[in-house]
Design brief:
The complex is a heterodimer of chains A (about 525) and B (about 160).
Chain A (H helix, E strand, L loop, with lengths): L2 H11 L2 H19 L5 H8 L8 H18 L1 H7 L11 H9 L3 H34 L4 H17 L5 H16 L1 E2 L6 E2 L5 H4 L4 H19 L18 H23 L5 H15 L11 H25 L5 H11 L7 H6 L1 H35 L2 H20 L2 H19 L5 H23 L10 H23 L16 H5 L22
Antiparallel strand pairs in A: 1-2
Chain B lengths: L2 H26 L15 H19 L10 H24 L1 H16 L4 H22 L19
Helix pairs in contact in B: 1-2, 3-4, 4-5
Classes of the chains: A mainly alpha (about 525), B mainly alpha (about 160).
Keywords (chain A): Membrane, Transmembrane, Transmembrane helix
Protein name (chain A): Tripartite tricarboxylate transporter permease
Organism (chain A): Nocardiopsis coralli
């Protein structure tokens, strides 16, 4: 371990100009996450332009604060009104809302903030220890390794698309296809640009991402805008005790490594971590029947893992430039705007940024613990009092700024609107959005990696038998095989149902209107998942 | 929710994607040959994408999946209206400038989402547009188009 780099990082963070953005990011993130419909991805994407004029480290701290805070706070509406504020909180809905209905909402909220913060802290410690080692190894990675890593990210993100393998793959392939537009990375030939200079410059992934996630979500909210009110939730006082803390410690200890490790796998992030950890905690428990009916250990497991996953997702992003989830894809954009490139060279070239991120993200979770414990009552009043009618038009204006500001190009704003419509249609027809964004980012990495590899190895395939490429190829085959096996076992026609052990389908997690919908159909988020 | 209608949606999408993949494949034959020996070339990935997308579209047509509930007519009108508004906003952003375009867009969007109090609409629309302009253009030094207002103090300063 390089002590000197850590000192550089601590020094960089202990600057009032950085600390203020840690606190600010955390506060904004909690508000963003607590608001139904605005996920961590939407929050980070929409607030990205705020960081353009900042230095890289304070900008990253603002966005990481939003990321960590929003992933935690998504559980506040999950517990209070049964509507996860972000997809990662879907695993908390059953037990959290059951506790709220038993009059134990304050206790559930306290578990959520303690477990999220401790999971996040453990994850960041693991990130700080593990990422520099991986970066050291990644320095030796050549084009072949990058090619295979990019393909792995694509197959993983498509295969975790909950029983929608074909649609997940289509989404990913379309993302790769979008990346074809513009100059190719080796011959500089303007593909599919039809003599248009805007197209020749390529489709920017920030406008696409804002369109797919923020704009399409706003469209969904406009569609449902007639006649709705937010659910009511009362929160009583709760004082944490030592014995209470001891009760939730085992699931926190078990779920931290689970969340971190799953978060590392490119293309997964906290959403899946939470479900895996929840199921593991259930398996480890002697009394399983209380899971799903208000079990504190279930909440603790899911909460710990989802925030540990945020730190895990930073590992491939920082060390390889390959996003761990969609939110970290935006973070890549935030770094490249400053002329820096995520990857192993960043660790030696900008230690103040990389180690500053480790130290600062640790502080983020400490700040979150304090804010979260102090503010439980406040947050519950906030989510029931927010006038969402004023919110969504404003989100659209902020989205415009975000898409325009990256290159000061009105063409990007058009791209964003078009992808808002595409994202809306994809959501309606059950196509997951994440693979498209991941495809758009890793497509060029995969292509230039493959072509360079073929040029270096004179057109032969012997490189596939070298140790690291062999392992990566095996992982690719495994991820596809796993998904195909699951798709084959699930009979056609019941695909949306799942078996209660996997993340719920897209439309259940992505939005949140089950209880807000007064004209409702009786469909609650998660109701298609586990009838128990 | 009509199950037959939603599987038909998948089939229609499958056909559109199939046409898209065929177009991409056809276009890729106009791309130049590789410049170096052993380089698969600039046309290689487009062809792979076209073939894989074609196969996946066939899979979608052959075994369409169920999608969620589709919006009713009223919902569709709402979505169509806000999408159209956003498009007009994007097109007007540069010619008339951020402040004017955003004020107009906010007012129309608030009306559309169901706000009916004229004072609230006027105050929130102008407040959000001017506030965000001052925040970004003045404080954060992010360039926003000034359009018709360019030259005015504060609001017209880029």
């Amino acid at each position: 371990m390089n002590i000197e780099n850590w000192l550089i990082g601590i020094d960089a963070v202990l600057d009032p100009g950085v600390l203020i953005f840690i606190v600010l990011g955390c506060l904004v993130g909690i508000v963003v996450g607590a608001l139904p419909g605005i996920s961590a991805t939407v929050g980070v994407a929409v607030l990205l332009p705020f960081t353009f004029s900042l230095d890289p480290l304070p900008g990253m701290m603002l966005l990481l604060g939003i990321y960590g805070g929003a992933v935690y706070a998504g559980s506040i509406p999950a517990i209070l009104i049964r509507s996860p504020g972000t997809p990662a909180s879907a695993a908390t809905v059953e037990d959290g809302n059951a506790m709220a209905k038993q009059g134990r909402a304050a206790e559930a909220l306290s578990i959520s903030v303690v477990a999220s913060s401790l999971g996040g802290l453990a994850g960041v410690v693991a990130l700080g220890l593990f990422a520099p080692l991986l970066a050291g190894i990644a320095l030796a990675f050549g084009p072949a390794e990058y090619f295979l890593l990019a393909v792995l990210a694509l197959t993983v993100v498509a295969s975790v698309s909950e029983n929608r393998l074909v649609k997940g793959l289509i989404s990913g392939v379309l993302g790769v296809g979008l990346a074809l537009i513009g100059l190719d990375t080796i011959q500089a030939y303007p593909r599919l640009s039809f003599d248009d200079p805007n197209l020749a410059a390529g489709i920017g992934f920030i406008p696409v991402l804002i369109g797919l996630f923020a704009v399409s979500e706003a469209f969904v909210q406009f569609e449902r805008s007639r006649g709705r009110t937010l659910g009511q939730a009362a929160v009583q006082k709760f004082r944490p005790t030592l014995s209470w803390l001891r009760g939730i410690t085992p699931p926190i200890l078990l779920s931290s490594p689970i969340g971190f490790i799953i978060g590392i796998i490119p293309g997964t992030g906290g959403d899946i971590s939470a479900f895996v950890a929840y199921n593991e905690a259930k398996r480890a428990a002697r009394d399983k029947r209380r899971f799903g009916k208000g079990e504190p250990r279930g909440i603790a497991a899911a909460e710990t893992a989802k925030n540990a996953g945020t730190a895990g997702a930073l590992v491939p992003m920082l060390t390889l430039g390959i996003p761990g989830d969609v939110t970290t894809a935006v973070l890549i954009g935030a770094i490249t705007v400053h002329g820096l490139r995520p990857g192993p060279e960043l660790f030696t070239g900008s230690p103040e940024l990389v180690y500053g991120i480790f130290v600062g993200f640790l502080l983020t979770y400490l700040v979150m613990l304090v804010i979260g414990l102090l503010g439980t009552g406040l947050w519950s009043r906030l989510i029931t009092g927010i006038p969402t009618r004023y919110l969504w038009p404003t989100v659209l204006v902020l989205s415009m700024i975000g898409a325009f500001a990256v290159r000061s190009n009105p063409f990007d704003v058009l791209v964003m609107v078009v992808f808002g419509v595409i994202g809306y249609l994809m959501t309606k027809f059950g196509f997951p959005l994440a693979p498209m964004v991941i495809g758009l980012i890793v497509g060029p990495i995969a292509e230039s990696g493959y072509r360079r590899t073929m040029i270096i190895h004179d057109g032969g395939f012997g490189w596939l038998l070298e140790p690291i490429p062999l392992v990566l190829s095996a992982l690719i085959v495994l991820s596809v095989g796993f998904a195909v096996r699951r798709a084959v076992r699930s009979p056609s026609g019941t695909e949306a149902e799942g078996d209660g052990h996997e993340p719920p389908a897209q439309e259940e997690t992505r939005t949140v209107d089950g209880l807000q919908d007064t004209e409702g159909t009786g469909h609650e988020p998660g109701s298609g998942r586990d009838p128990a | 929710m009509n199950a037959a209608a939603t599987t038909r949606g998948d089939r229609v999408i499958g056909v559109i994607l199939l046409a898209l993949s065929a177009t991409l494949l056809a276009l890729s034959f106009g791309f130049p040959p590789p410049g170096q020996e052993h380089d698969p070339g600039t046309a290689a990935l487009p062809r792979i994408v076209a073939v894989v997308l074609g196969l996946l579209s066939l899979a979608l047509i052959w075994r369409p999946e169920r999608s969620g509930p589709l919006p009713d007519t009223g919902g569709l009108v709402q979505v169509g209206a806000i999408a159209l508004l956003s498009l007009v906003y994007a097109l007007l952003l540069e010619p008339i400038g951020f402040v004017l375009a955003s004020t107009g867009f906010m007012a129309a969007a608030l009306l559309l989402i169901g706000v009916r109090r004229p004072v609230a609409i006027a105050a929130v629309s102008a407040g959000v547009a001017v506030g965000l302009h001052l925040l970004f253009a003045q404080l954060l030094e992010v360039f926003l188009p000034t359009g018709l207002l360019s030259g005015l103090p504060l609001l017209g300063a880029a």
